[in-house]
From TrEMBL:
GO terms for molecular function: DNA-binding transcription factor activity; sequence-specific DNA binding. This is HTH araC/xylS-type domain-containing protein. Keywords: Coiled coil, DNA-binding, Membrane, TPR repeat, Transcription, Transcription regulation, Transmembrane, Transmembrane helix. The chain crosses the membrane at residues 12-29, 369-388. The keyword Transmembrane applies. Residues 447-555 form the HTH araC/xylS-type domain. InterPro entries: Homeodomain-like_sf, HTH_AraC, HTH_AraC-typ_CS, TPR-like_helical_dom_sf, TPR_rpt, Tscrpt_reg_AraC-type_HTH. The keyword Transmembrane applies. PANTHER family: ARAC-FAMILY TRANSCRIPTIONAL REGULATOR (PTHR43280). The lineage of its organism: Bacteria, Pseudomonadati, Bacteroidota, Flavobacteriia, Flavobacteriales. Residues 391-444 form a coiled coil. TPR repeats lie at residues 136-169. It comes from the Bacteria.
Amino acid sequence: MLFYKGSINKNRYLRIIAYILIFSGFNFLDSLQAQEKILDSQKGAKDLNFPTRNCEAYLNASGESYNKGDYENFKKYNDSALMVAKDFNLPKLQIKALINLGIYYNITDTYKQSLSLYHEALSICKTLPENKNTRVSILVNMANVYNKIDAHDKAIKAAEEVLELSETNNTSDLNIVGAYNVLSICHSNLGDQEKSLEYLFKMKLLGEKISHYGVILTALDNIANTYYKQSKYDQVIETEMEALEYLEKHSLPERPTSLLNLGMAYVKKEQGSKAIPYLNRAKEIANSQKDLELEKACYLHLARAYELLGDYKQSFEAQELYSEMNETLLEEKSSAAKLDVKHDAEHEKQMVESQLETLEIIDGKKTQVLIGSGVIFLLLGGMLFIYIKKKKDLEKDKEHYKESNKLLSNENKMLKTKMKELAVEKHQRQKTRAQYKNSSLTKEDRDGYMNLILDFMEKEKPFLDFDINQAEMAAKLSMSTHHLSEVLNLCFDQNFYQFINLYRVNEAQKLMKNPNYNEYKILAIGYEAGFKSKTSFNRVFKNHTGLTPSAYRQDNTTITN
């Protein structure tokens, strides 16, 4: 622990007393004991270590608030701890407060602010001797934010560094748990559910070893969510019922994630009446904790649950609320990602500048000019390469959308028939290409899989599921994700999401021509066709047809009239 040394300036002393007095006026719920601990720390005000003890008292009080799920008080205590730590130059305690505030902003889905605080904490950490354990604490929380903004490569890198440092340092078990949790989520999002479960069972085992309720319950929630992604809905329910029993046994408050997982599983089992109470309760808790990500998920699955019961009014209301929250969160994720890229660029810029200064001292101005010219040459070469690559990608996309437009414009034939014709045409045109020769499937196997996929798309309509992914569809077809990807690419020249979106656009076209949907808004048509948001519906529809959904509907209404 670092202590403040030297005499305490009178004004600074008055400021720290002011922090306490202001803080005591917040009138926190259930925080009497925490307040008493903070006031007790004033008794040693003449002691030079008073600021340290006072700051620690705020941090301890924040921990109690966090354990109760009282995140607003958790933030306020840490705000005060940060002010004291900054004012009295207590870097270790400043880092602790920054980490806690980063956790608060992560919980409330303010990712940009959270990442900014963690970068600040890392900067302070570099100034401390023997800082490895402190760095571990920052990295494990930072990795959680990277997960939230879908920067899985950075999340995995940070979590693996935590595990590597834990082997040679006396690292807290909770930091190891955090790394396991991050790695499980990353591998799950990347489609490797078995690897995800491997880390989750390690996490649960460690939680049981250290008798930590929160770790055990988080592991159970994430195990259930992984089973959900594997379409093992009965195992989801079984796992979360175990979690609910554990909560009741230890008199712990309800966890919104457990309730959400149960609701999601019952929706998939088409038991809307069982799903709705769990989803509504999860939504209430998420709202009280200001967890927009969780609340958004609740609305998404409530929309489906109400639809199962035929309550289309409530279903549409839930869909609209989901869409609004989704747009807000996408903006926040984009903002956080930009901040992190900016930070990385600044870091790299500083490294380059530092290296150039060193070279200037060693080799003089001549070397600097030569290096500068080389860097400029490399930059220009890199820009030219990116331009050429981007141009090729745009031309490829243009050809792809031209093909899609051709498929969707001939409405006298069923999409299934047109897709088969496309596959035959593509085979005749490209049968000599290396990709066919290197295929792991024979032509007979490939054709068999193609017919299986097209029949499945026509009968089961998996594209209507907002969250359908390649792994889930491959599992339902009893084929590997590699073979699914290979068939889509070789037969239709499309990746998974291009293929799914083609069917969604086709479905939207049919709905807009159906008189029963004349009163539906464009947004509702998009949802009915399987699109998650208005933005993605407009973008994908226009790419495939050359028209916005509104323009397409207007043209076809005019033709009908």
